[in-house]
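This part of the workshop introduces the protein records we will be handling. The structure tokens are whole numbers drawn from a learned vocabulary of backbone shapes. The record below serves as our worked example for the rest of this section.

===
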Amino acid sequence: MRIVILGSGTSTGVPRIGNDWGACDPSEPRNRRTRVAIMVEGNDGARILVDTPPDLRQQLLTNEIDRIDAIFWTHDHADHTHGIDDLRVLRYGRGGPLQGFAADETARRLRQRFGYVFAGQHGYPTIAKLDTLDRLRMALGFGVGFCQMPHGPAQSTAFCFDQDGKTVGYATDFSEITDGMLDLFDGVDLLICDCLRRDPHPTHAHLGMALELAEKCDAGHMVLTHLDKSMDYRTLCDEVPDNVTVGYDGLELIL
């Protein structure tokens, strides 16, 4: 599998509007962060996109990605969904809509907010077909596992994709480690994990929680993502264990 970190920043990105870099060094290019998303590519070339952030168009252009075969949404918050219209171009030339998956409540909210994407409108074709995760076990040659995670008062979906004995887990926007997460990520080869800041936060994982999750599920390697302006890349690299990588936009990983 090939995994690309398309975006590694929190909901406001880094820098924030107003050229606010916080503690991040503006001269370090890996501190420039767009909103979170990843792409997972299988050994047969099938590509899964996780989330459609507002920066999706630029992320796909920067990483020279012109084809996606399926989209998985973690939840319906704006920083994870409001680039959904950029799927229109990925629909061009296809014989049918893109395949999309989300948990029941996320799917309901996406259909309500972006009806034209999933049902077409004014003669325009349906861009994506949206199915729920209820009985999903395989997609595009990947084994798929998932569970719901607390995200403050809301929920976010964790995903685990496996192929040829290798597994990659994705856990963004969670505020508590649950037994379901530990079961899902048990022994995972690569875990891409929410890590908003160093101090605890009511709706996101902080550095200590992310490292605790990696240890409890015995992850082979962890990549930190959803980083805010307090998390300077080089400073954070000096703080984390050898089996942890500080994520950045454009980071490519091979399993």
Notes: Residues 10 and 226 are 5 Å apart (CA to CA).
